[in-house]
Design brief:
277 residues, alpha/beta, Nucleotidyltransferase, domain 5, 5-stranded mixed beta sheet, two-stranded antiparallel sheet, 7 strands, 12% strand
Length: 277
């Protein structure tokens, strides 16, 4: 049996009194370990093996339960949508078995338009002052309209050919948005609004698709573990993978994790009976 002290410390720290009987170690000793997880290094090998056996059982149980929040009925299928500047669109269903990821660099026209927009905004901001902001407001507005006008045809084609075809009918797209974003000229905010508007237009024009778009707060979705539900910026690795700092959950793509969390944020709200737009 392979001993993993990180796993043992994690399950012991979160051990509930009602579960102590599942481990062949005295409750008194378990309570001591729960309060002082580093003391496992002073335990007998036989005790450590019993703890590891329990940790393995918990791991298997949680792996079975991690993706049970998939929401699919005969009428609707729900998917989470994470939108970014570098990684344009990432979509996941409720168990991360069906995903779509489209990178911005794959579409030179969009990449170029975003760079030109960012450069234009930097130039405007460089010359703006609080006293003269209203003077430059039209410049911000003009630059943002130019960005949308440039990328909209390509985005429309992308969504129709690469997204709608993957989730053809009766799909509800749950798009993550930043509720704290107050700058309407932010590049990410413009991309999110543009993609939402195009999707809604597609569904208006094609009622047979029976698709719809809803939004939910995306706060911490990119750094939250789907398994233990703890958030840590360090769980996102430098190579865009996800490696939870609190439990053993790993995933090869942190954007897929984000889209999964976006979906489940909505499902929790839906289960609670709260209406969301």
């Amino acid at each position: 049996m392979k001993i993993n002290t990180k796993e043992i410390k994690h399950v012991i720290t979160h051990l509930k009194a009602k579960d102590m009987h599942r481990i062949e170690v005295s409750n008194r000793h378990l309570r001591h370990l729960r309060a002082n997880p580093d003391s496992i290094y002073q335990c007998k090998l036989s005790t450590i093996m019993k703890l590891q056996n329990y940790a393995n059982q918990e791991k298997n149980r949680q792996n079975q339960n991690i993706v049970t929040q998939t929401y699919q009925t005969s009428e609707k299928t729900y998917v989470g949508v994470d939108i970014g500047v570098s990684n344009l669109i990432t979509i996941s269903n409720g168990d991360m078995t069906q995903t779509v990821k489209l990178k911005t660099k794959t579409y030179p026209q969009i990449k170029k338009a975003i760079k030109q927009y960012n450069d234009a905004i930097k130039h405007i901001q460089k010359h703006v002052s609080k006293r003269k902001f209203n003077t430059y407001h039209q410049d911000f507005k003009h630059a943002s309209k130019k960005l949308i006008r440039t990328i909209e045809p390509t985005l429309n084609k992308i969504l129709r050919e690469n997204i709608i075809t993957q989730f053809p009918k009766n799909t509800v797209y749950i798009v993550g948005i930043n509720h704290l974003q107050i700058n309407k000229y932010d590049t990410h905010a413009l991309l999110v609004d543009c993609i939402i508007n195009i999707l809604r237009r597609i569904f208006d024009e094609s009622p047979k698709l029976n698709g719809s778009v809803l939004t939910v707060n995306e706060r911490k979705t990119s750094i939250t573990c789907p398994k233990c539900h703890k958030a840590n910026h360090q769980s996102r690795t430098s190579n865009n993978q996800f490696d939870c700092k609190y439990c053993d959950f790993k995933h090869k793509d942190d954007d897929v994790v984000a889209s999964f969390n976006i979906l489940n944020n909505y499902l929790k709200i839906k289960k609670a009976g709260v209406k969301h737009g």
